[in-house]
Amino acid sequence: DNNGGDSENDNNSDDISDSNETMRNNIKIKKQEEDTLSQLSLALSDERNDRRW
């Protein structure tokens, strides 16, 4: 019984570390998206300023 419980715990810890890695990757991707969006909005505002003159 104890051994079975241990292996279940091992499986759970693997799942947890996988989900943590997934979460880290998602955060990284989100950060990249935000950077890209801010660059795009900067480029757009620059273009608007150019057109004004």
UniProtKB/TrEMBL annotation:
Domain of life: Eukaryota
Segments of skewed composition (Acidic residues): 7-18
Residue segments, region Disordered: 1-31
Name the UniProt record assigns to this protein: 9771_t:CDS:1
Organism: Ambispora gerdemannii
